[in-house]
Every structure is written in structure tokens, then in C-alpha cells.
Amino acid sequence: MMAIRELKVCLLGDTGVGKSSIVCRFVQDHFDHNISPTIGASFMTKTVPCGNELHKFLIWDTAGQERFHSLAPMYYRGSAAAVIVYDITKQDSFHTLKKWVKELKEHGPENIVMAIAGNKCDLSDIREVPLKDAKEYAESIGAIVVETSAKNAINIEELFQGISRKIPPLDPHENGNNGAMKLGKQTTQTSRRCC
Amino acid sequence: MNKSQACSRASLEEMSAWTMGTRSLDKRGSFFKLIDTIASEIGELKQEMVQTDVSLENGLEPTEAHSMVRHKDDGYSEEKDVKTCPRDSGYDSLSNRLSILDRLLHTHPIWLQLSLSEEEAAEVLQSQPPGIFLVRKSTKMQKKVLSLRLPYEFGAPLKEFAIKESTYTFSLEGSGISFADLFRLIAFYCISRDVLPFTLKLPYAISTAKTEAQLEELAQLGLNFWSSPADNKPPNPPPPHRPLSSDGVCPASRQLCLINGVHSIKTRTPSELECSQTNGALCFINPLFLKVHSQDLSGGLKRPCTRTPNANGTERPRSPPPRPPPPAINSLHTSPQLSRTETPVSMPETVNHNKHGNVALLGTKPTPIPPPRLKKQASFLEAEGGAKTLTSSRPCHGRERELELGTAGSPGGAPPADAPGDCTRAQPASSESRSPWHGGRQRLSDMSISTSSSDSLEFDRSMPLLSYEADTNSSLEDYEGESDQETMAPPIKSKKKRNSSFVLPKLVKSQLRKMSGVFSSFMTPEKRMVRRIAELSRDKCTYFGCLVQDYVSFLQENKECHVSSTDMLQTIRQFMTQVKNYLSQSSELDPPIESLIPEDQIDVVLEKAMHKCILKPLKGHVEAMLKDFHMADGSWKQLKENLQLVRQRNPQELGVFAPTPDFVDVEKIKVKFMTMQKMYSPEKKVMLLLRVCKLIYTVMESNSGRMYGADDFLPVLTYVIAQCDMLELDTEIEYMMELLDPSLLHGEGGYYLTSAYGALSLIKNFQEEQAARLLSSETRDTLRQWHKRRTTNRTIPSVDDFQNYLRVAFQEVNSGCTGKTLLVRPYVTTEDVCQLCAEKFKVGDPEEYSLFLFVDETWQQLAEDTYPQKIKAELHSRPQPHIFHFVYKRVKNDPYGIIFQNGEEDLTTS
User: Fold this and answer.
1) Residues 6 or more apart from B837 whose CB is under 8 A from it?
2) Which residues does chain A have within 8 Å of residue B699's beta carbon, measured at their own beta carbons?
3) Which range marks the domain in which residue B785 is found?
4) Which strand (E) or helix (H) includes residue B539?
5) What ipTM was estimated for this complex?
6) Residues B209 and B132 reside in one and the same domain
7) Domains along chain A?
8) pTM higher than 0.90, yes or no?
9) Residues ≥6 apart with Cβ < 8 Å to B450
10) For B225-249, how does the pLDDT look when each residue is reduced to its tens digit (9 = 90+)?
11) Is residue B902 part of a domain?
12) B754 → closest Cβ in A21, A65, A74
């Protein structure tokens, strides 16, 4: 049997960009009814095979409203990966995304895998954020980037597969549960918000 | 003999038909199904029985020809039957009533050798007769394996069978039968071979020991047993063909071995039938199968073996003194247990069992048969009667036959006094008197107690059901979250909770659950373990007990020892983690936890045990302290004021744009929160929190089918928490956050706990937020610290790290460093340590010296009122290992001492 490795993934992004839709789509496509579902869409899990491991994503959704930003550190702490979502039809949301990236770089877990998802790519005719911009930005920060459509199930699987691939293989000396949750620097966190 | 067997079979058939008939008349509809299933099961099994008889002779012969000689009625060349012996040696214990399971439990230091290498195991087994076994942990496979000595004919001297551990069970690789713990697994394979080439055998000395004391004595030898004279070989025949107690016994005992043969084969049936099950592994205790199954066995074949002792008791070569069980005595032995449950006979046994090993058993406190429960049981029984009667009618028969009362033929022929009905009734009671788990054991012990396997098997039959039932019961209660408080007194509770009409569904449900593997009666070994640990924790003679008791009373008596609520809770959490760690390494647990609990569950079980033995006694104190702290630091007041403010806002002002719970729902939620307050286990509290959240989701979704993410949920949660207007929630959340097993914090519980904490923080800082739309930096700091701690890799400190020692270096300007390890208890202050150091290092002018912590290349002088052990513990719990030293040196040499004092304070107060 393959070892199951639990990976905490946090979802960041403005309210309304479709964070939870992406997760719902990811989790509920090919929904396996044998796996105990979670009580709600804010926290969902899905297990996918990756190499000779099984990755169990524990997906922590965050509230995107400004007033909840201060709570975000609780959610992204200990995450192996962060999915930062923007809406390709809203330039503002791409702006917020950059702020999140900055905050994660400053205060997030050291080796956190960052994945940028430009959601609502089914609405590309009213697009405000060019794919090229996103790609360049992602490259500059070493993040995965895909344009997704939760609505049409485009690139959702790919997004998470990309994350899976970027998760460093388990160090055999580490506890399987926590290997991916290793935290880097613990000391630098300040009480200031990034934005 | 054959004739009578046939007769009895016939009568059995009739009997079951009869009982089924009557039963079905007055049984509720739902029973029909159960009955039908059982009936058809019996039918099938019967057919198979016939087949097995054949396969016994044909199929098995090839592999076991060397030892298994089958006999027809004429036979008597019994000497060679390897199979019989373990069993017979069990029978031999008639006089002392030590079951195979007992023997295994007592002697695990001998056969349970987890650290043994393959070579060592081979060496040990080399000199042993076939059938002798060890259990060890294979480093290659990273699994426990059963190393079995093979007869010479097999080529290899031994073979290893991997033991599969699932979440709740142990089973042999390839077998469909799984067991709640290792002891039961081994005990089973002592009786039935299943996937093994033959049954396991206990070393002669163990199987013939007469008393627990003897077993204990053997166990003392541990691994040395195998090379010691204690491991004496049986008097007569030499190893390869192990002498059997039944040696040279008359035809009757031949039958016995036949039964064994049948039995072993038969036991496979369930697994075959059940292969479709999830992982192929059938729950050992699936009552439908096993019972009926064994039932059938006993029904069909019991007769002969019953006879064995009667006819041949005296002839048994090995049987010690005369002890020829005359029929009367025998029946006395068996029948009361069987059916006369309430008779004293069974009670002493319960007590007796309590004495040894299994103190922690579920029902172990020699439950004085709580009347309510009994009643319930009776009704349960009645309800379940269909099944019961079906099966129990046979047992009754068995007994009758034993008693020589059972006039073969008509079921009605049974003496009125022992009418099947009675039998049915009585049985449950009997099982009741000895608690479900006793049942389990009982069954095995019965196998050895009486020569009649039928009795035992049959007796056994009633057990599993009951134990399930009890189990479900309790697990349900757990679920209800109420047993938290009173784990000790389930009986009354259960009475309250169930009435007869309720029973079957629950029973069935329990079985379904088991099937699905979600809930299983395998909770029981877990409970057993938890209880055992809890008992150990009260026993101050043990190191563990000392540790726990001292800590608990220390906390209760020293209210001032913690500077903040977080400090207090974190210390407790740390203590639990450390004790858990100690327990998993120590040998104080007997039997070792690995033998009862599958490996991936050990931590879970230990965690539960910690809650029970540490949090339970401390709950009241901790709550009071939390309240004091919050009163003192003003956060109580702050929350109270802000809560009022928030309550006055309408949902939209809080950012709520989804349906919110109405008054009724809020009341429901409050009730759940109130229940939560009664729990001591953080996990159970979290469970209730999850239910609250679930309810909120349900309201939000209100059939819209829309899925709500955190954008919507968090505002609603905040709103709901405000509506509940329970200031205590603050401490509840804190309690959970700090005391929950850190490994659960990334999961669903951790998520909603985080959300609840976030919601409360928002409420608490509502005013500020209104003003600055910012959380106070203080809150952020708390969040940060919490998460820092939560998300650290749990580098687990070793036992000595947290024990009462402190390594202190002594630095003199000119003479360099010397080190000493001092005995420093956790709550010894730096001041005292300094004194101790002055003494130990023979310092003339102690006022010039102080204790410093050297960490991260910096020196920190420790304030007098800090606790070095706590500082050390804190350092250990940091995510990255820090190299640190406690150094006792002159204050003046260190210009940084003062500068870093602040840093040090952080350290101790965080």
C-alpha cells in the first residue's frame, strides 16, 4: 500500500473569484462516495496518487474579504502549498493576488508551493488580465500558473497535479504526516499585515 | 456414536425448524430477514460440513499426511495428530481453567518478541517442535510476522506469516479473518489453522501450566525461556510428533481431532463467503457467520467430543492426577455456564478473570449485573430471539446430550426444565454476567475448560452479538458525546437509551458499521487499553503513575505556577505528549500496546488515554484557572462588551450574505455548545464543534444546493457565535486549540477550530476593528504563536529529555568547562538550581554566579523565578532543533546577560 501523505493547501484570493468553486470542482469530480465527505465546502479533502505516494490534500479555504485578512496567517501556516486565485475578468483581483504572494513570501512557510489560478477563463471575452501578465509574474516568483474554469472544469485537475509534482518527495527521516508541513523560519513573523 | 450423532443432528434440525417456526410467529418483521439469513447460512454451512469431512480426508491429507491421520470410527492411531495437541493441551487444563488466551496473555514475554531478528528467531525455533511459534517484527517488511516452526517434511525449518494490521484489526496475510488484537489472533490459530499449514502450538510448559503463577514464572524468563530447562519437552514422544494429550485415546477422541480438522477448515468458510468485503478481510466477529458457523460445527459434531472425557478421561496419558471427569461433573461444568448463567458458577469466573491480565476489560469491574441492563439485555435477546433460538437451540441440545438427557429425536423431547427457550434466555444473561469481552475470552477458555468444544463454541455464539451490542452502545454514546463524563457507568445510560424496539436496528446498524469498517466493535481493545493505562496512571507504584499523579496534584495545588492560560494549557499539552511518548517506549504496559492495538492506531489510543488520565482529573481545575486568567487580564470583559455590540448588528453588517440560523437553530446550537462544555476530551469537544458547523451549513444551504466556501461561512459562523452569547466559548475554544492532539490540527477539526477562534477574535476585537479594521497586534501574535507551535514538526523529545535531569556546565574563567547532570524537577526555579550548582561545583561566592542559557550563539541569563526544565522543554519543542547549554557562570563575565534578559522572558512566557 502506498503511503498517504497529508498536505495542507490553503486557498487565497479575493472574495468572489471562485476559490471554493475550484475546490468543489476538484473534489467532487469523480467523487468517491466511500470517502467520508467533509461537512462543508470550506474544508475539503481529496487524495490523488503521485509517484509512489498518495497525496491527500487538506484544502483550507479562506474568507477573501478584507476584514478577514488578519486571520489568514492561521490558515496558511503549515501549508505545503497555497493556491492563489484571481479572476481573469477583474484586474483588482490580480492585484490582491500579488499582495498575497508578497505576504506568503514574507510570512508564509518557507518552502510553500505557490500555484496561481486565473479562474473564469470561460469568460475570456471580457478578460482584464492577459495570460501573458500572469505567466510572467508567476515565472518571476517561481509559481505554477494555469487559467482555470471551475464552471467548465478546465485545468482544475492540472492545477493540483502541478502542485503534487512540485511537492518535494518525502524525506525518509521525517514523519510522514508532517514532512510536507515543515515550517521554515518561525521567527520573522511580525504583526503587520502585508498590505 | 455415529448413530447418536446422526440422531442429534436430526433433532437439531427439527429443533431449529421448530424454533424458527415459533419465533417467526411472534417476531417483528425485521427479524425475518435476520432469521432467514441465519437459516440459509446454517444450511449452507451444513452442506459444507459434509464437504469438509470429505476434504478433510482428501484435501488435507497431502499436506498433513505426516501428522494428520484421519480416522473413521475404528481408528485409534491418534498419536500423531499434530493438530489435536494444542487443543488438547488446552483441554488438559480442565482443572485449572486457564484458557489458551489466558496462557497467551500471561506468557507474552516469551512468544511476543518484537525486537527479535529473523536469525535469532530461527535459532530459537530450531530446537522447537513443529507448531511452536514466535511473533516478531520483521524489519524487512516493517510488519509483525508470525514465525512458525515447520515439521521436517516441509523442507524449510520455519515459515513466516505476515500479520496485517488495519485500523482496527489484526489478521494473517491472506486470511479473511481478522481479530481485535494479537492475542486473539494467536489464540484462534492455536485452535484453527485457517491459512496456516497447521495449528499453532504452545510450548509444552505453557500449555500444561496449572496456575497463573506458573505462567507468570515462565513469563519471567522472557526470551530465555526457550533455552531454559523450563521449556521442557513433553515426557513421552519427541518433538516432531508432538505428544498429544489425546494420545492413544479411544475412538472418541479421534473424533475430537476430526472436529479440529473440520473446524480449521470450516473457519475458512466465512472468509470465502465474505471475500467481496472491502479488503477481503472479514471481521472476525461478524456474528452472523461466525456464530452460525461455529454453531453448526458444534451442533453437528459435538457429540463425540463431549464423550471424550467421559469415556477416556482416565486414559489420557498426560493428564496429571486422576481427574477423570465423570459425566456428571462434566455436565456440571458445562451446563451451568451454558445456560444457568445467574448461577454462582459463572460469577466466580468473572471475578477470577478480573484478577488476571485483563483488568481493563470493558466489563471487568465485576459488574454486579446491573438490573436495568439485564432487562435490556433480555429484551434485546427476545428481540433477537429469532437468531438466538435458531442457534441456541442447538447448544441446548448439545448440553442435553451431554447430560444424557437429550433424547435424540424430537425437540419437544427436551426436558421441560431445559427447554430451548430457557436456554435462549439464559444464555444472554450468562454472557451479561461476564461482560462482552469476557465473552470473547470465555469462549476460548471454554474451549480448554471443557472437552466439549460444542459448549464453548455455542457459548461463544451468544457473545459476539452481545459484545457488539454493548460496543455499539458505547460508541454511540461516545458519539452522543456523553460518555465522556461517565465512561464508568454505561449500564444505566444504556437503559435509558434503549428499549427493546430500538435494539435490533441498532444491532443491525452496528453490524453494518462493522462491515463498512467505520465503526467496529474493535473499539473494544482500544477501550481496554485506555482503561488499563488509566488504571496504571493511578498506580503510584509505577513510574508512569507517579509521573501523572505528581503532575496532576502539582497543578492542582500550585495555581501560581503558570503565567497565562496559554502557558498552562501548553504545558499540559506538552506533558501529555511527553507521557505518551514515554508510554510508547516503556515496558510498563503489560501486555505491550503493540499486541493489542494496530500500529497506526497506537498514538490515537494513547492520546485518548492521556485525556482520560490527565485531562479528566484536571478539567475542573483547568476551567477555573482559565476563567481566572481571563478575568484577570480583562479579556473576559472585553469579550463581553464586544459581544453585546456584535449582537446588535444585523447579519449584513457582519458580512453575512447567506441564510442564517433562526432562533430555534441557535437554541440547538447552544445546546451543543453546552454539551461541549461538559466534555474533558478536546477531541470530543471538536466533534461537537463540527456538528455545530454542520448545522450551520445545513441552514445556509437550505436546500439551495449551493456550496458555501469560507467567504460565506466565516461571517455566518461569527454571527452564530455572537447569537449564542456564551462567554464560556472563549475558554472552550482555547482549551481545544491548545490541548487537541497537534496531529489533528491540519484536518477538518483543526480547520473549524481555527475558524471558530478567528470568529471569536473578530468579535473580541469588534470595536477596534470598527475603528481600525485591524485585529489587535496582540491577537495576531497569539495566532502566530499558536500556529508556530501547532505546525512544528513534532520532534519528539526523548524520555530523559523531559525527565528530571538537567545538564549544567560550569564555566570558570580560567579552568574552562565542567559539566554535571543535576536532578532538577520541572518546577524547580532557577534560583534553586543556582543553589544546587553552588553546592555541586563548590562555588565559594554563589552571589557572583548565575545560570545562563546559551542558545543560538547568545547568552541569556535566567531570571530567578524561571523554571529551567520548562525552558528546556520549550527548546525541545521548537521546530528546529536548537543546540543549547545551561551554563552556570559568573555574572560579570557576561556583558550580554542583561541585554538578553528580555529574550529569556519571552521564552518562558510564550
Assistant:
1) B808, B810, B820, B822, B843, B849, B851, B888
2) none
3) 634-792
4) none
5) 0.88
6) yes
7) 3-166 (3.40.50.300)
8) no
9) B91, B94, B309, B330, B333, B334, B456
10) 888 877 776 655 444 444 344 333 3
11) no
12) A74
